[in-house]
Amino acid sequence: MKQLGKRITTLRKNRNLSQEALAEQVGVSRQAISKWERDEALPDIYNLTTLAEIFGLTLDELLKGSDEVGASKKPMLLALELKLQAEKYIMAGIAMLILGAFVFIIEPLSHQIQIIICALMALGGILIIIKAGFMFERFYMLNKQALEASEESGVTRGKRNKKRQDALATIAALSCTLAFLYLGFFKGMWHPGWMVYLIIPIVLAIGDLIASR
Q1: From the first residue on, what is the mean pLDDT of each consecutive set of 10 residues in the chain (213 residues)?
Q2: Using an 8 Å Cβ cutoff, are 175 and 202 in contact?
Q3: Which of 5, 108, 171, 184 is the most exposed place for a label (fewest CB within 10 A)?
Q4: What is the DSSP string of 145-212?
Q5: Structural domains of the chain sorted by starting position, each given as residue range(s) with its CATH number in brackets
Q6: Is-contact 206 190, C-beta < 8 A?
Q7: How far is Cα 174 from Cα 52, in angstroms, rounded to an integer?
Q8: pTM higher than 0.85, yes or no?
Q9: Residues 3, 98: Cα–Cα separation, whole Å
């Protein structure tokens, strides 16, 4: 474990990651990363395993400092912060689209105002998603060779994307169900209310498009 903090710092900087970005991937605070790098604290076995996966090393290579061996096994990815930021934009854009569809359940507003707000939120959500798409495209171009050469990494990304898609489908289904019940019980709109469920395939299609990138 000697000089582990220095190795973490070197590996992080080689991948153009800030302490905040690495902390987000590991699932800890930035302060924890800072303490590890200064050798003021040691990551537990779970965090060590996660760090090894992020840096493309085995656990033994991470602990013993065999960086060159790990680098030859898994290509280094660049600009991971760009990818993380794009994912946040995607979630924000989808949230705006869903909220825009729910504007019609707000009673105090007139129908025209509701349409304007819905259109603006939908436009904003689409523009944010387009921006995220360009960010994903830039990330892919920066790492095209590394991504295409790493089949194992592709399998891992596929599993993660599947989990994200399942979570996205659950959130969209629950949100639409709540909206449908509200429209039915409080507005008496059982027949047109079912149309809120049309949002689900739209959200999933956007998610599939992102995952394909």
Answers
A1: 82 87 89 91 88 84 62 55 81 80 68 79 84 81 64 52 73 78 73 73 71 57
A2: no
A3: 108
A4: HHHHH-HHHHHHHHHHHHHHHHHHHHHHHHHHHHHHHHHHHHH--HHHHGGGGGHHHHHHHHHHHHHH
A5: 4-73 (1.10.260.40), 80-212 (no CATH)
A6: no
A7: 36
A8: no
A9: 49
